[in-house]
Design brief:
Blueprint (H helix, E strand, L loop, with lengths): L7 H27 L9 E5 L5 H14 L4 E5 L8 H6 L6 E5 L5 H4 L2 H19 L6 E5 L1 H6 L5 H9 L6 E5 L5 H6 L2 E4 L20
Parallel strand pairs: 1-5, 1-6, 2-3, 2-4, 4-5
């Protein structure tokens, strides 16, 4: 293939077209932003789907909030005694962060529904306590969707409490198979789609990647 040299005139025309395109794009974006009138609102954010990254995204948001010196909370509903990298790292913010790992591991590990119900109830009680804390600005309810999926908690009660949170409290709920009631109540829903996962190729969970 023979390359045709770009003349100075052609380069100038291309630059002009690009600038005009970006000017139109900026005008449209500015108009879109200007149309939004709500400056502050506590959000209910849901991360769900079969893909990896739901809790990871939530902890990324948590780190951002801590960077702004917000008081934050975490309640983990399913995850148990794993010594995770995020917990180790975020322990450095103990003056701003209230962290509670209330689960006992994967749902298939205990094989005891009564025990799972009691564990979920204790985690939800802690979540309600944090929701009521007027100083808290961000709360992560990690894997709450799993507890709801297995009916460990009454969905109507949970959604009602989340809806009734005070206006400036942000709450992030993670876990696959979010129920329709949770999706309807949320302000922002992101579904992580599974395209490819190394576990299918025989790679086990790795320190620093999965935990």
């Amino acid at each position: 293939m023979i390359e045709i040299p770009t003349t100075e005139s052609q380069a100038g025309d291309e630059a002009l077209r690009h600038r005009q395109k970006m000017e139109m794009r900026k005008a449209a974006q500015d108009a879109e932003v200007a149309s939004k009138t709500i400056t502050q609102k506590g959000l209910l954010i849901v991360h769900t789907g079969k893909g990896k990254g739901k809790s990871t995204a939530a902890f990324g948001l948590l780190l951002r909030a801590l960077g702004h010196k917000w008081r934050c909370g975490v309640v983990q509903f399913i995850k148990g005694g794993w010594d995770t990298g995020e917990r180790q790292a975020l322990a450095r913010f103990e003056d701003l962060l209230s962290w509670h790992t209330m689960g006992e591991g994967f749902t298939w590990e205990t094989q005891d529904r009564a025990r799972d119900l009691a564990t979920a109830a204790a985690a939800w009680a802690k979540a309600r306590e944090l929701i009521a804390d007027p100083k808290l600005r961000l709360l992560i309810l990690d894997e709450l969707n799993i507890a709801l999926r297995y009916d460990y908690l009454p969905i109507a009660e949970v959604v009602a409490a989340l809806r009734e949170r005070r206006p400036d409290l942000h709450i992030v709920v993670t876990g696959r198979n979010a129920k329709p009631e949770m999706l309807e109540a949320a302000d922002l829903v992101t579904e992580m789609s599974l395209v490819k996962h190394h576990f299918a190729a025989g790679v086990k969970a790795q320190e620093g990647i999965e935990f």
